[in-house]
C-alpha cells in the first residue's frame, strides 16, 4: 500500500485552540505514561509478579507491555507515530482494565485512602488513548510536520 493511501486514513491535524489542547494533553498524559512505565522497564520480564507471586502472564508479554507503555509515552509527547502509539497504549490499558474487572475491583474506591485497587485510571487512560487514535495529535506534533 502506498504511503499516500495510508496517510489518507489519518485524522486531520487540528490547529488553533484544539491543537493547543491536544498538545497539552499529549505532554501531560505522555509524561504520565513514561513515569508509569519506568518501573516496568526496569524489570521488564517480571513487573507484574508482585510479592514474588507469579502473575500468570509470560515474561515476554510483560516485556512487550513495559516497552509499549514506556516508549508509547515518549511517542505521545512528541506526537510521533501517534496512531501507532495510541493503539499500543489502548491495548495495554484494555489489558489492565480487564485484569481489574477480573479481580472484581470497583470503578472508584468508596474511601480514597482505602487499601486495594480500582479501575478508574485504566479506564481514563484507555479513553485518552482512543481519543488520540481517533482525533490525532493535533498540528503541534511531529506527525503534522512529517505527514501534513
List keywords for this structure.
148 residues; 6 helices; mainly alpha
How are the elements arranged and paired?
Layout: H1 3-7, H2 16-42, H3 59-78, H4 82-102, H5 120-135, H6 142-147
Account of the protein in words:
The structure is a single chain. This protein is 64% helix and 0% strand. By secondary structure, it is mostly helical. It has one domain. α2 (16-42) packs antiparallel against α3 (59-78). The model has no long low-confidence stretch (mean pLDDT 91).
Brief summary:
The protein is mainly alpha-helical and 148 residues long.
The number of distinct β-strands equals 0
Number of structurally distinct domains? 1
Number of helices: 6
| Overall pLDDT metric | 91
Straight-line distance between termini: 18 Å
Cα-atom Rg, whole angstroms?
17 Å
SS-derived structural category: mainly alpha
Task: Tell me the strand percentage band.
Answer: under 5%
